[in-house]
Amino acid sequence: MSFTISAPVMQAPAADRLEIRDRAVIEVDDRGVITAMEDAASGQGRSLAAASRDHHEVPAGHVLIPGLVDTHCHAPQWPQLGTRLDVPLEDWLFRYTFPLEARYADLDFARPVWADLVAGLLAHGTTTAVFYASQDRAATTALAEAVASGGQRAWVGRVAMDHPEGTPPYYRDASAEDGIQQSARSISEIRAVDAGRGRVAPIVTPRFTPACTDELLRGLGALAAAEDVLVQTHCSESNWAHQYNLDRYGMTDATALDGFGLLRPGTVLAHANHVTDADADLLVQRGSGIAHCPLSNAYFSNAVLPVRRLVGKGVRMGLGTDVSGGASPSLLHNAHDAVTVSRMLEDGVDPTRTAGPDRGVPGTRIDTTFAFWLATKGGADLLGAPIGLLEPGRRFDAVLVDTASRRGSLRTWPGIDTPERVFEKVVRLAAPADITDVWVDGRRVAGSGAGEGAGEGAGEGAGPA
């Protein structure tokens, strides 16, 4: 059912541009597509509201932001969120993570976790997620079912991994051929779950080169091309991962992945902290991009991603939580962390070095607008999806934040806080206690109800396809 909603709007159409509207009237059709957006005080805005058969005015103190896009999230790691961050990446996988992920072959264990994950992320305003699922195909299908049931938008990938040295014997594909076949069947099963609604899509997912044989990587590249689906994998995450590829292939991770046909338009490379300038140029040529995971990178990547420089070169980039390598499921929290680590990169962290270029990297800081753009339109552009911004032609994926409730840490002060300051506080402080409504494709899917009624019972949309 179509509706209109009137609310203040805060969003970032570009990395360096914050757009704030005092109050806009947004018209959403029965497919979940924004068909009009006008300033509420204008004649067009008043006419749009008056003509609507289902109009909603959000209460004072609320602001509407685009739905958040998490471009890198390990769904099976949800139960260990906030823990197990005490060892290097290569040890962390074998000691903690692979044993946990192997448990998802038990669907009685998997299904409650998946349901809790989807609900938890929606409560944080994450309307879209790019999920690594399990190596188990049935568990991956069950995750797609949980996403569809919860109303979230997502790309869901069965994790392919077969290398006898890079995976444990209890958690790997039987062979490269088996991994390719299981991934192909998973694509079909996820498409059947979505049944043409377009909100849940498959994504080819080689875990990373240390976990995959050349035969598997080559086959998955061919599969992605044949099925015309996106690809996700890890790339040059840490000192160890970056050096691994130099030793195995005599070339960087990105170059090796390209040779296997895995750098395609919309390919999501998680982390990529150690990519070279030549790698960045290659990503631009292929239309691939990076999921920046600032909090996780602080634990596992041995470096700070030079976000401003890479985006300036034309590299597509979104933001990722990397649950559970990142200890927070909130993309807003991670946006704040993206600003923080960029400041550390610019200023440097070793006080024994002389301040300036010897200690840091000048000109690398980003601000809250840039980070919020990564979490919304930047991620949407990487995925090639019509989301991440509230404007005609895009999907109505949106989050309503109550800046006046004082239920959480978010506080605003009349006479002190300008709209720009309120935006900064939303990015840095908003949490589920402050989020009253979440919509995906015009359907209200989470929240306590300040915008209740808007989008209730809305029709199916055309999501990520």
Structural account:
This protein has 465 residues and is α/β, with parallel strands linked by helices. It folds into two domains: 3-65 and 390-446, Urease, subunit C, domain 1 (Roll); 68-383, TIM Barrel (Alpha-Beta Barrel). It contains 14 helices and 17 strands. The strands form three sheets. Strands 6, 7, 8, 9, 10, 11, 12, 13 and 14 form a nine-stranded parallel sheet that branches. Strands 3-2-1-4 form a four-stranded mixed sheet. It has a four-stranded antiparallel sheet with strand order 5-15-16-17, with helices on one face. Strand 9 (159-160), helix 5 (176-194) and strand 10 (200-206) form a beta-alpha-beta unit.
Count of separate structural domains: 2
CA-CA gap between termini? 22 Å
Q: How many extended strands?
A: 17
Rg, please? 22 Å
* CATH-defined superfamily of the largest domain: Metal-dependent hydrolases
Summarize the helices and strands and which ones pair or pack.
Blueprint lengths: L2 E12 L2 E12 L5 E6 L3 H9 L3 E3 L4 E5 L1 E7 L14 H14 L4 H17 L2 E7 L4 H14 L2 E5 L1 E2 L15 H19 L5 E7 L7 H14 L2 E6 L3 H11 L3 H7 L8 E4 L5 H10 L2 E4 L1 H7 L6 H6 L3 E4 L11 H17 L20 H16 L14 E5 L16 H11 L5 E6 L2 E4 L19
Parallel strand pairs: 1-4, 6-7, 7-8, 8-10, 9-10, 10-11, 11-12, 12-13, 13-14
Antiparallel strand pairs: 1-2, 2-3, 5-15, 15-16, 16-17
